[in-house]
Amino acid sequence: MTDVRSPQAGNGAAAPGVAEEPADVAGETIAGVADETETPRPGGFGAVAWARWAWRQLTSMRIALVLLFLLALGSVPGSLLPQQGIDPAGVQQYFTAHPALAPFLNALGLFNVFAAPWFAAIYLLLFVSLAGCVLPRSFRLARTARARPPQAPRHLSRLPNSVRYETAMTTEEASAAAAAFLTRRHFRLSQGEGWLSAEKGYRREAGNLLFHVALMGVLVSIGLGGLFGYKADRLLVEGTSFADTVTDLDAYHPGHLVSPNDLAPFSLTLDKFSASYVASGPDRNQPESFNAHVSYTAQPGDAARTYDIQVNHPLNVDAVKVYLLGHGYAPVFRVTDGQGKVVYDQATPFLPADQSTYLSEGVVKAPDAKPQQLGFAGVFLPTAVDVSGQLESAFPAPYLPAVSMIPYVGNLGLNNGVPQSVYQLNTTGMHRLATPVQVLTPGQSMKLPGGAGTLTFTGYRQWVSLQVTYDPGQVPALISGIAALAGLVLSFLVRRRRIFVRTYRGDSGRTVVDVAGLARSDVGGGFEAEFGELAAGLKSVHDHDSSPRSEETE
Amino acid sequence: MPLFPSSHAARRAVGAAAMAVAGVLGVAACGGQIAANTPASNGNNFVSGNGTSSYFKAGSRLAAPAVSGSTLSGARLSLSSYRGKVVVINFWGSWCAPCRSEAPTLAVLSEQYQSKGVRFVGVDIRDSPASARAFVQNFGISYPSLNDPADEIALAFRHTVPPAAIPSTLVIDRNGQIAGRVIGQTSYSSLGNILAKVTAGG
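Above: the input entities. Below: the structure tokens describing the complete assembly.
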């Protein structure tokens, strides 16, 4: 007597019974995809209507995507043009090279893109758009997750999966038995006269909600980092120290609510830096490992501790991370001026010009040399070799260290107060001293013509560039990110499905049971099999248990 | 392993987004008098100021920390030995262009205010003794400078009015409290005005 109908294409949609299905089947959305319900443009001049219209437009997914695209587009000049915060010298050069174009670009804020008002406007709108989209959606999802299933359709046989059979039970007994059976299988029920609706798979809504809430969590975490975090750079030579205070940092990018007093008060000394390189084979000259051996104190007065900073293996002091970013050589020079006085004696960081050989470039400035200021520009070669008259470095490790420096005298341009790069020599006020090119090995000196002084290359040390970062939003962002992913997976894997049961007295006088099933968004398939099992289970309950009492014991 | 300029850019964008978060969530911005002077990097390997000067009224001043160290000439010097005098502390380095530019002004002011009970102390940071001594001699600086290669003295001021750039100048009143600060290059008038008020008992 069992009459199982297989799904019939086009049947369900036209059925009047199915039409009773609430509209939220159509409104079923995957996380993040907004309802693109078009709000009609208001015809009159009502400020509230216009404001509502503008708000609906702003919080639509289409506008969010447009803003995201604009944000990406707006960042392009930031990577094409020199930026004030990163490369002020480059901006100056651009002004001299393009005197007509540069002021125009400057007026548009293209030399400081990320601080430009138009850029701020884009990200502010984007954020409001995201928040305005995600927050109300979260509330709606929370309501959906608590909702009860709707009334059963009238004609169950028109649903894609349906079964009809007869039972010896009364209609009331059959309804109660079906309710007990479905409750045991964790269905959520709503019941009425002769009908029963059961729904399962609310974890999909919970996953959807989790995704949306976690998305807000990610935004807030990023905000936390931007407000209370900071990032700073410092180049440190072996044997020297620095403290995490603004005066002792090369570059300092504080969050909007960070004051100089908030920096973690640690001090750090670079005891030794070692690097190893591949000596032969196709990967020759490639670095194998970098180790910066440091000692640090977390607070002034604390005991010093040691640590070995490696790439992607930062030092962690009070939630502040110190990363190893780069390294190089700092030849030690002693400059004696024309009056025989030592006016310069220190390790001078040179910047690597060639990453595979560590041929490095740098300058020495002796602004207090008498009778005239002295400057030197030149190269450091870790493994100096003569390649047909040309001085080159053969290997990045310091096997045959040598320098070659060109001397200048005159005005370094330091005394007028304009900050200048310590890696560049401004030779506009200086003239080059006529000396033959000399290669100095450690301990060797070069006498300057005209009794201007002496330069001695006394040795070398290594330096590391460190990045100090504090980001209080990092852990919350990670947790939110994982939660968002879990929510998304849940919402994709779990499907919502409904079982409807109607019981009524048939023509023969026996109770007829109609069972139908409907899977909402059956992405993975497999609902048909589940429905078959449930229908068989219901039928066996209705066949074998003739009294309500025995149902409870099952 | 070079620095990625883009990471800086990204951070700025994130910071910008953070401002948006603050606006939406109604996070109250609570920057004090000091946060207003937060300097930006000039990309020249140190943080230089813009010459902003601040004067703190009596009653709203914070006590200067007890700092001491050895001077460029090797003598011991402790800030507490100047108690009862007005002290000007100047953080400088011989390599720093604004420091070189302001040095003649400081040399003049230190002599002018000597008779009014003002003492100057330099704090030489991120420097080598050879260059620092040449600087002091070159500019005819008569007051002592503490040698502070690890910047521990600046760190000691972190809970008060930290020197937020190179150069930075702090004025400490007769009671050992911080009465003024100049971030960046001082001028005759900016430091002179603070000194005139503080020596007058203001």
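Note for the figure: The CA atoms of residues 109 and 117 of chain A lie 8 Å apart.
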